[in-house]
Amino acid sequence: MTSNNPGTTARETRAVAKGTTFKSCACKDPVTGKRLGKSCPGLRITHSDGGQRWSTAHGTWGYQLELPAHADGKRQNPLRHRGFATLEAAEAELEHARGLLALDPDLAVRRQITALMLSVLKDTKGLPDVEEVRRKVRTRQDLNRHVTVEEWLAEFLKRKRAIEPTTRRSYESHVRLYLTPYLGSIRLDQLRVSDIAGMFDAIEEFNDTIAAERASGDPARVLAVRYRRPVGPTSMHRIRATLRHALNMAIRQDRLLDFNPASVVELPAIDRPKPLVWTEEKVQRWREDHAAHLDLLQRAREGRRVDPIAAYISTPRPSSVMVWTAEQTQAFLAYARQDRLFVLFRLIATRGLRRGEGVGLRKPDVNYSTGRIGIHWQITQLGWEPIQGAPKTDASDREIAVDAETMILLKEHDKRQKRERLAAGEDWIESGFVFTDEIGRPLHPQHVTDRFYGICYQAGLPPIRLHDLRHGAATAMLAAGVDIKIVQETLGHTSSAFTRDTYTSIYPEAAAAAAEATAAFLTGSPTPAPRPVPPGRRIPHPGQGTTDEAAADKGGTVIHLPTS
Fold first, then answer.
1. Cα–Cα distance between 435 and 86 in angstroms, integer?
2. Range in 164-173, 254-263, 493-502 the model is least confident about
3. Which has the closest alpha carbon to 172: 192, 186, 156, 183?
4. Is 290 helix (H, G, I), strand (E, B) or coil?
5. Which of 42, 193, 384, 428 could covalently link to 310 via disulfide, CB atoms 3.0 to 4.6 Å apart?
6. What is the CATH number that goes with domain 322-508?
7. Is 385 helix (H, G, I), strand (E, B) or coil?
8. Distance between CA 71 and CA 498 in Å, rounded?
9. Orientation angle between helical segments 445-458 and 466-479, nearest 10 degrees
10. How many of the other CB atoms lie within 10 Å of CB of 449?
11. Cα separation of 540 and 542, whole Å?
């Protein structure tokens, strides 16, 4: 098949075996009303010397590819895909499609590949990955059926026949209570490290809910969680072991995967993890461990690409619960400032919102006149499915104060959302949430977590979980001397005792200040804390003839030396 367009060169429309590229538009004949397509005169520009070239401002490129005949021998309509901005883009997808059909000479397999191509193109406007299809063709899988995690786990349990009854009950319990509800709907070949990490984050959040309800003192609320046991670190390791075993079977026996994401998910130690601050020494050691971990993954993958975010998340840390220093949090917020979800991350970092609370913040719950927001709705996640609803406890349903700068940023965010609404036009969906995607739909909680990890990685910061950003907010409030009762109410805890027991991390600076204050109290030699020096001001040194009062007037730090 060749193009009839004048001025076409061999490069501009490249006829290949069973495929070609073309340029067309949606213009219609003013008389007949029929679409002009490839014959529109506006597609070409005529030079003064009579030569022609393609217009760069009119029409789009496309390609056409002959497909294998149906099983009954009837000719199948060719694959046509148009709408490409450049010839190169159309040619690239044409080569992609031809590469897929060339994966296997068996005509029956090529028909399966064709059906897969047409289905994926319809759903995603793109073609399936060549390497993924190649693996399925090599292992003789049904190309047009995607196995979910739930389906594979059911198959896993069927195949585990020669095991002890207690082991079977353990496997079945893990699958029924955790793996299927949280991960079951995800395609097995698309299961990611972050999906599994998100499952354990959700389990930990529910542990917090159970503890808060039991500490409430309300008989009805205590009774509601009477038979709900928190999942401890030991149980989490066993749940991961079950999933890891099931995925290893998928790799070895059916070749459904080539990488086991459960094997690199970082979990808390068996003992209750101690929250630690990312000091300079810990960061340097982690960077060395990360380089070694990345090298190990690359060697294990035998040259195949390693997901840098997965390697970043899965590198072991000093503790599973890590807290950034104030400077690290400031660096994160500075880097995230250009992200469209910046204000959401700022609220979590400064006010300690849970992920679901931030995603579920509604416009009527933002009170600009009082500088407060209401936490009355949340979007949580069950498996991959987002679940909307009110907070689970009375303490979580609350109103909190927000600083003036964040309120200004919320106004700016609202203005940008209005501009996005105008740009989206009829495609806009008014969901009523403060934080949405580009066409107004509620955010998926996992999308926020993925975005958070991406920013942390790009900013060059040591990794923490998104939930640890809330932990850092609580630690910062306590280090700043905020009353424990206010911290408790801001975080939505039932009791201040629970807040105190949970958030015990101390910034090194705060610990040093406490040590100095204690020593001064016991020795009777009070040493006032130096006042901060404004940027650009120099600290006067003793002997320069500057009095304390003059130094203070000039912005210097006044240092009182003990007299002999």
1. 35
2. 493-502
3. 156
4. helix
5. 193
6. 1.10.443.10
7. strand
8. 67
9. 70
10. 20
11. 7
483 alpha-carbon distance from chain centroid:
33
* Residues paired with residue 381 on neighbouring β-strands, in sequence order: 386
Is residue 278 predicted with pLDDT exceeding 60? yes
Kindly report the CATH number that applies to the domain delimited by 149-275: 1.10.150.130
Distance (Å, rounded) from C-alpha 60 to C-alpha 58? Answer: 7
Q: Where are the domains of the chain?
A: 19-138, 149-275, 322-508, 528-564
Per the structure block, which two tokens stand in for 75?
A: 């000719």
In 3D space, the residue among 278, 285, 372 whose CA is nearest the CA of residue 329 turns out to be 278
Residue 10 carries which side chain, given as an amino acid letter?
A: A
Strands 35-37 and 44-46: unpaired
Q: What is the pLDDT of residues 89-100, one digit of tens each?
A: 999 999 999 999
Q: Residue 279 contacts by C-beta under 8 Å, 6 or more apart in sequence?
A: 325, 508
Length of the chain: 564
Residue 116 · residue 146 · CB < 8 Å: no
Q: pTM of the full predicted structure?
A: 0.55
Residue 53 CA to its chain's centroid (Å): 45
Rg (CA), the chain: 31
Assigned token pair, 374: 């209401």
User: Would the CA dihedral through 119, 121, 125, 128 be positive or negative?
Assistant: positive
Q: Are strands 372-375 and 398-401 parallel, antiparallel or unpaired?
A: antiparallel
